[in-house]
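Re: the request from the purification team.
They wanted to know what the chain is likely to look like in 3D before they choose a buffer screen. I agreed to run a prediction and write the result into the notebook, where they can find it.
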Amino acid sequence: MIAQDFGALSRGILERRDLRVRSRLGKYRIERKLGQGGFAAVYQAWDTIEGVHVALKMPHAFNVTASMLDAFQREARLISRLEHPNILGLKDASFIDGRFVIVSRLGIQTLAERLKKRIALATALTYVEQLIEAVAYAHRNRIIHCDIKPENLILLADGRLQLTDFGIAKVAQRTVVRTMVASGSGTVGYMAPEQAMGRPSARSDVFAAGILGYRVIAGVLPEWPYAWPPKGLASLRRKVHPDMIDVLRKAMELKPSNRFQDANTMLRAFLPAKRKTIRKSLSN
């Protein structure tokens, strides 16, 4: 449930230090810090009431403004209707002990962590398919993600991949876009050029999905200025069908009008290319 009492902001929010391991925040016991970006810090915690692990995303105090909370509340209403096996929804968003906390379930690891080890081709193709499925579903609901990156993809114990931070990313971009662009963080590595200039669209999500898809399948992250051919293409050609190369290249086009219109169009091209790639791998 998304908390509606955002008036707590008026009581004042002070910049605070990192939370200590085993400290308590409401019903949550902090276990470790997972990461930090320009918008928020993320912690792993134990829900002492429900008995499950959760991720706590806490926007930095200087980002918690009345306009940000209003924008997030509007986004939360939109994303509350997203129910898909490859989308990780919000459990809660509320003020706890004076901190604004966004709560979601915790998987076994992020895709960013999984990418530190070799991924078999069949597994890589499955991950990319699940990513595109999630984004396509959001696009059918007229919602764009704005921050598709490995850190925002959670792996569950059953092998499912779930995309998280819907709405949060959109609010964060409006709130701290200059910080994000200047930080040199992973976010910038997946951001479409027009999105970096403040003009995101469904085609921007397609670009990010293409860049991430290339990294997952080829094992190499294309770098700015994203000139074709990217690194690792020669090796990728030996593994996948030419149609898969065409799908990734179209998704990664610098000019938005040359990309797939949205993730649904991309998915329709990806699925047959995946089948051909699997047949190619079996015949090698």
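For the purification team: Residues 1-15, 176-187 have pLDDT under 50 and may be disordered.
Please add any questions underneath this entry.
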